[in-house]
Design goal:
Layout lengths: L2 H11 L3 E4 L5 H13 L3 E5 L2 H7 L9 E3 L7 H12 L6 H10 L1 H10 L5 E3 L6 H11 L10 E7 L10 E5 L9 H19 L4 E5 L10 H16 L4 E6 L1 H5 L1 H7 L11 E3 L3 H14 L3 E8 L5 E2 L7 H17 L1
Parallel strand pairs: 1-2, 1-4, 2-3, 4-11, 6-9, 7-8, 7-9
Antiparallel strand pairs: 5-6, 5-10
Length: about 325
C-alpha cells in the first residue's frame, strides 16, 4: 500500500465532513464523486444546485450532499453568526448576507465554525489569499500557534532519501520571506505535521546555500539564528542547520559536511529559507522526479483548511481531502 493509500485508509477509519466550496470547477466535482466512492470523507459541495448540475453534466452526483446558500435553512443562522463575529470590524448584517451568498469560501468556513463540518479544501480556481483570508477571519489560528504556514507533502517514487521518499517541504505557499522567529515556528509546525501524517520521527533540516558556516551572508545568518531558536523552543524535535540540500538528505555527504549533526544525511522535513526557494524546490521535484505533491497543506489553523494548486488534478484534490480528514481526526 503506497503512502496516500495509507492516508485514505486512516481517513476511512473515522470519516469526517469536508467542504468543497469550488463547485463551479468540474475537477472538484469529479474528486467529490471519487471521495464518496472510496468512502474517504463525507463531502459537501456549496453552490447553486442548478449551477452544480450544469457543471456536472453527464456525471452522477446523486450521492453528493449539496448545500445551496440561496435555499438552505441554515443560511440565515450563518448570516447572523458571521455578523456577530465581524461586527466589531464594521460588518453589517446585509454585508454578512452578501458575502455568504457571493463567496462560498466564507460559507464553508462558517459551516466549520458552527460545527457542521470538520474541514475545507479550496484553491483549485482561487488564489491562496482567497482561500486563507476567510479561514483566518472566521476559524482563526490554533491556541498557542505563532503563525499559520503551509507545506507540501512530497512522495518521490523509487527514492531512498527521506522516509522512503516521503518528505514535508515548507513553506512553499504562504510565508514570503520569514524572519528567524517565523522560520523556527515553521520548522516546529512542519515537524508536527510530518509526525501526524507520516507517523515517523521528523528530522528537520533548515536549508541554506551554506552548510555549517561554509558561506558568509545575511541570508545564512537568518537560517543559523532560526536553527538556534528552534532548538531552544522546540527541543522535542530533531532540528539542525544551516544545511545545503545534499548535506541534508544524502548520508555520505551529510557525514562529510556536517559530521556532528544527527539530522544531516537523513532529513525528511525540509524548511526552505523563503517562499521563492520553497515553491521552486517543490515544483522541480514534482516535475523532474515525477513526485506526488499534495498541498499546499496549511498548518496552524484551529480546524483544517487546505489550499490547492490551481494546476491540480482531480486525483490531487482527492489526496488533499484525505490529508485534511486525517488532520481533522487529530483535532
Amino acid at each position: 500500500m503506497n503512502f496516500i493509500e495509507r492516508i485514505k485508509e486512516r481517513a476511512r477509519s473515522d470519516k469526517k465532513t469536508i467542504i468543497l466550496p469550488e463547485s463551479m470547477d468540474r475537477r472538484v466535482i469529479e474528486a467529490a464523486i471519487e471521495i464518496e466512492k472510496e468512502e474517504i470523507a463525507n463531502i459537501v459541495l456549496v453552490g447553486r444546485e442548478s449551477d452544480i448540475n450544469q457543471t456536472a453534466a453527464e456525471l452522477d452526483i446523486s450521492n453528493i450532499n449539496i448545500i445551496d446558500p440561496y435555499n438552505s435553512d441554515v443560511t440565515e443562522e450563518l448570516v447572523v453568526k458571521l455578523y456577530e463575529l465581524r461586527k466589531e470590524k464594521g460588518m453589517t448584517l446585509e454585508e454578512a448576507r452578501k458575502i455568504l451568498l457571493e463567496d462560498y469560501m466564507y460559507y464553508a468556513c462558517m459551516l466549520v465554525k458552527t460545527g457542521r463540518a470538520d474541514g475545507v479544501v479550496s484553491g483549485a480556481c482561487h488564489s491562496t489569499s482567497n482561500t486563507l483570508r476567510p479561514a483566518l477571519q472566521i476559524i482563526k489560528t490554533k491556541p498557542g500557534v505563532k503563525l499559520v504556514s503551509s507545506f507540501f507533502l512530497m512522495v518521490v517514487p523509487n527514492c531512498e532519501y527521506g522516509e522512503n521518499g516521503a518528505f514535508v517541504f515548507a513553506d512553499c505557499g504562504l510565508e514570503q520571506n520569514p524572519d528567524s522567529e517565523k522560520l523556527a515556528a515553521i520548522a516546529a509546525s512542519s515537524a508536527e505535521s510530518f509526525k501526524l501524517l507520516v507517523e515517523k520521527e521528523p528530522m528537520v533540516a533548515m536549508l541554506s546555500h551554506s552548510t555549517v558556516g561554509s558561506a558568509k551572508h545575511a541570508d545564512v545568518d537568518k537560517v543559523k539564528e532560526a536553527t538556534s531558536i528552534a532548538k531552544e523552543n522546540y527541543p522535542q524535535y530533531k532540528i539542525d542547520g544551516e544545511l545545503q540540500l545534499d548535506a541534508a538528505i544524502v548520508p555520505e555527504i551529510g557525514k562529510s559536511k556536517a559530521p556532528n549533526s544527527e539530522v544531516a544525511g537523513c532529513a525528511n522535513v525540509l524548511v526552505f529559507p523563503d517562499l521563492d526557494a520553497g515553491n521552486i524546490g517543490y515544483k522541480l521535484v514534482q516535475r523532474l522526479a515525477k513526485a506526488e505533491a499534495y498541498g499546499p497543506v496549511c498548518q496552524g489553523i484551529a480546524s483544517p483548511v487546505n489550499d490547492l494548486s490551481r494546476g491540480c488534478s482531480s486525483s490531487d484534490i482527492v489526496g488533499v481531502v484525505a490529508i485534511t480528514a486525517v488532520q481533522a481526526q487529530n483535532n
